[in-house]
């Protein structure tokens, strides 16, 4: 068996992280993560994806050439700080063997600039190459109808003064495998693109949740579906796909909507209200309904427009009774 091209660290092994891990392993890379304190579900996903489980962030930072941060927006800063701490402890990397840290999280340009500054202002700064990145689309997965090993891939735009393609030896292969595109020399460009993209995709889903759930309470959901399928069939398909798929990810999207609100306010000059409202929609899904208990691959509720709307109505009615 050929030796791996390089060891790539991933934090953490959720749905997206495990998909990326499987893609990398299938293309000749090895993958590792810090398994300490992780849930049984995460450990099982890691094993299924052939991810090596290390015992500490220090082990990860020393043994990997690249670390990809793929975590909920609320955890992005803390995750970066963990790696800064790992690199400024007793074990250090030499400047001629830098660690590439790619932040692929759904955060605002101002947030990713703050994250980059954690590395630049630390003693580890000279031994780290920071890459701003984002993920547009679904987790990587093999094409079931392809015998040639082709995959369905998300797009991963990156930006900043460094690119994974710059890494000697395997960088170009890694860059191509991950379907990356370096769009700008400025940190913040890739994250900003993600914010603008998700404002249309996940923002639209938050509107669909509210529309379908309200129509359910009014008793006109079937009429709404009929009208949309007749007059706006493409919009209906997008709305249906969005609302039936969002439940296991709603808790992650609360922070993402808040980051979008920050982006549109700071960079676009708009009031943040629309997306602070969208954040509240996803918080309601995650905290006040049974949909918040859903797990990817283990779905029970909300797998149709009708049941999503019913679950939302049930949860919101229960909350109203508690508040009365």
Describe the model:
It is a single chain. By secondary structure, this protein is an alpha/beta fold. 51% of the residues lie in helices and 13% in strands. It contains 12 helices and 10 strands. It has helices spanning 15-26, 40-48, 57-63, 76-87, 109-120, 171-177, 189-218, 221-231, 233-245, 250-266, 273-288, 305-323, and strands spanning 7-11, 30-34, 52-54, 66-69, 99-103, 128-133, 141-142, 151-152, 156-159, 180-184. The strands form 2 sheets. The protein has an 8-stranded mixed sheet with strand order 3-2-1-4-5-6-9-10, with helices on both faces. A two-stranded antiparallel sheet has the order 7-8. Helix 3 crosses helix 4. The longest helix is centred in the middle third of the chain and has 30 residues, at 189-218. It is globular and about 65 Å long. The model has no long low-confidence stretch (mean pLDDT 94).
